[in-house]
Amino acid sequence: MSLAMRFWSLVVNALCIPMHIIKALGLYEGYKRVFPICLQRISINYNKKMHDKKAELFRSLSEFTKPGKKLTLLEIGCGTGANFEFYPPGCKVICTDPNPHFKKYLDKSMKQNDHLTYDQFVVASGEDMASVEDESVDVVVCTLVLCTVEDVPQTLREVHRILRPGGAFFFMEHVVADPSTWAYFFQHVLQPAWYYFGDGCEATRETWKYLEEAGFSELKLRRIQAQLMFMINPHIIGYAVK
């Protein structure tokens, strides 16, 4: 299967040559204006199918609130604010995303979720959140984002830096499928095209390995099948404590 996989991956990569050229010329940045529209529609469908899983995961958020204080939460790659409905009432939310064009969709989500307090929207990548102080948040949330960051270990180092001692990193991420499956085959074959459709998304990442090596004191991680399209069906879900 590996020979066939490599061959068809090269074929798809060749078909993507026009996209490679567009990106090299800096023209791909125009897609970032369109991507929030696409993601808003995708997020609605994703939340419908993953509602119970998200509700189960985020039910534990309040456990990391300091006594007598409100929970302070930072979300990496907040996108359109699809997670806001799952956050506990009174929670203070700091939103970060490298794409500034999400701002108007965030404003809409904020109005629809007035049980939250919004601190700020920071245009920043997960690898560099320098404007956020050390040990300043109780929880960091990241859903469907570690597939797109350029440097996963650096992103997790930033998570460590901004989390207070005893704080937690909550995640829900699609990952590469089992090598014995056809999903694994097609994830690798279609990856060159998927990268452009998903604004840098890599469906072939073994994200759990990065989490295991990130130096958290506790890691609660489980695998699920999300019942979505095969490219993003395998998921890991859980949280890690600093």
Could you describe the 3D structure shown?
With 242 residues, the protein is of the alpha/beta class. The chain has one domain: Rossmann fold (3-Layer(aba) Sandwich). A seven-stranded mixed sheet has the order 3-2-1-4-5-7-6. Helix 5 links the parallel strand 4 and strand 5. It starts with a helix and ends with a strand. The mean pLDDT is 93.
Radius of gyration over C-alpha positions, nearest whole angstrom: 18 Å
Structural class: alpha/beta
- Quick one: overall form? globular
CATH structural architecture? 3-Layer(aba) Sandwich
Output the strand order for the largest sheet: 3-2-1-4-5-7-6
Characterize the biggest β-sheet. Answer: 7 strands, mixed
- State the separation between the terminal residues, measured CA to CA: 40 Å
CATH domain class name: Alpha Beta
Instruction: Kindly report the name of the CATH homologous superfamily.
Output: Vaccinia Virus protein VP39
Number of domains: 1
CATH topology type: Rossmann fold
SSE arrangement, N to C: HHHEEHEEHEHHEE
Strand content: 15-25%
Number of strands: 7
InterPro entries: Methyltransf_11, SAM-dependent_MTases_sf, Thiol_S-MT
GO molecular function: S-adenosylmethionine-dependent methyltransferase activity
Pfam families: Methyltransf_11 (PF08241)
Keywords: Signal
